[in-house]
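[Q] Does anyone have a clean structure-token version of this?
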Amino acid sequence: MNSVIIVAAGSGKRMNMDINKQFIKLNKKEIIAHTIDVFYKNKNVDEIIVCIKKEEEELFKDKIINKYSFKNIKIAYGGKERQDSIYNGLKCLDDKCDIVLIHDGARPFVDDRIINESIKVAREKKAVVVGTPVKDTIKVVCDGIINDTPNRVNLWAAQTPQVFEYKLITKAYEEAYENNYYGTDDSMLVENIGQEVTMIMGSYDNIKITSPEDISIGEKILSLRK
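[A] Here you go.
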């Protein structure tokens, strides 16, 4: 059984709008609805949990679940940090779950190729991160001074979904809380317990909508997919 946790409990402050960015529309359809729809239609996804702000539950049910006739969507409440939200999502998973996909609600351009390949590799390797090789030269800067220029060949930009064996990601989260450890993404927690994580190719279209400029980029991606 393959389950996905979609995280949509953030504030989206960089959008400078008075609504959660998940409810902003791309071509007349909410960002989170685009994201859910991809997983909802994928034949390899058996269960969907969406992490939302508790105070937005009725809005989410009305504007997303009911509006687009999504069935059997589970809701988990967001926590103080992204990690807390995902942990709440993990607690809602079906007992039969084998593989867990964790995905940003604001990445609506994930596709079936990425989903299917990440599940396949996770079944073999236990832990997978989707990403893309960086195109720019990266500088390590401290107090305005460049300290290092890492070899670009070895640098990838991490995306989601990040996909794990259920028992592994549960163990990683439990140990993180036992040690008061917070990572910036899920693979950090898994790496922290000594598990090797495999990187697979994502897509340069698989962007995260985080700022107003991303809206126009997203609409362009949608127009090219028609």
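[Q] Thanks! Anything notable?
[A] The longest strand covers residues 156-165.
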